[in-house]
Amino acid sequence: MTLKVRNRLLLILFLFAVCCGIINTLLFIRCLTQGSFSTKMISELSREMLPDLFKTTFMPYSPQATAVAIIFFNAYIIASIALIYSNFEKTQAIEIIFFGGFLAGCMCEGLRLIPVFMNIWKSDTLSIAIITRFALGGRILAVAALFFSVMFSTPENRQYVERNFLIMLAISLMTACCIPLNNVRFITQFIVPWGMEKEFFLLRLALIVACTIALANKALTNKSKEMFHEIIGIIMLYTGHGLLYQADSYTLAGIGAVVLSAGTVFYMRTMHKIYLWK
What DSSP assignment string belongs to 132-162? Predict the structure, then answer.
């Protein structure tokens, strides 16, 4: 993939994020004025594992917080692409291509406002199931993109970037289509519950460990301090993304937003230092 093609794709993603951000903000304002955010419509299935103290004191459920977390994803994508253009516009970095896949996965979260705005959360199970699969596919894509950025960023894989990116997309879409959904309940993240959530959490941990081991091996081989810093950035990106898409309280949304933003800045600075010496 040439620099020109990569930058054009990022520009398209940027414009799409701006449009989605404006639409989601308008939807949020409309939902507030119409009183669409009601805790009565939500099944708090996803909060059953939380202790009562967290439910009531530290992380009380707020549907508005869920909406704010969704809108933040759009603002985050816009800021991240602006950061890429300011630091990597003329740098052929494979990691940035896969990071674009991570941002595309974050983009899918914006669809979660539709069931609340359209008031279809209890009547149109097919539409909610489609929205849930898009959001789930985006989450899998985001996780896979960070993993691919570590495992397939060597110079030997430069000529196979398009192939690896397509494989990553195919894995994400096929997995999202195969995971079972529970269309009976509508949970606090404005989607329906999906199966194998614990397995997905374990998969995230396994990928973090795999990325850590691979980067540590590269760092020791190349005697690079920046690659150890890249490990921290990857972990922060995984953590911030996971917290933010699960956010159903202002506390969780705030922590997720801070960790994801700080992790992105740290990761970008580290990548800039790595490619500065190449």
Answer: HHHHHHHHHHHHHHHHHHHHT-SGGGGGGHH
- Per-residue DSSP letter, 59: S
Is residue 66 within 8 Å of 247, Cβ to Cβ? yes
Assigned token pair, 33: 């004025």
Q: What is the pTM of this model?
A: 0.87
Taking only the tens of pLDDT, the chain with its 278 residues reads 677 888 888 889 999 999 988 988 888 888 788 776 665 555 554 555 444 445 555 667 788 888 899 999 999 999 999 988 888 878 788 888 899 999 999 999 988 888 887 777 666 678 888 999 999 999 999 989 988 888 887 777 777 888 888 999 998 989 888 888 877 777 788 888 887 778 888 888 888 888 888 888 887 887 777 888 888 899 999 999 989 988 888 888 999 999 999 999 999 988 888 776 55
- Where helices occur in 62-124 by DSSP H, the ranges are 63-88, 94-107, 114-118
Q: Six-digit token pair at 149?
A: 């950025």
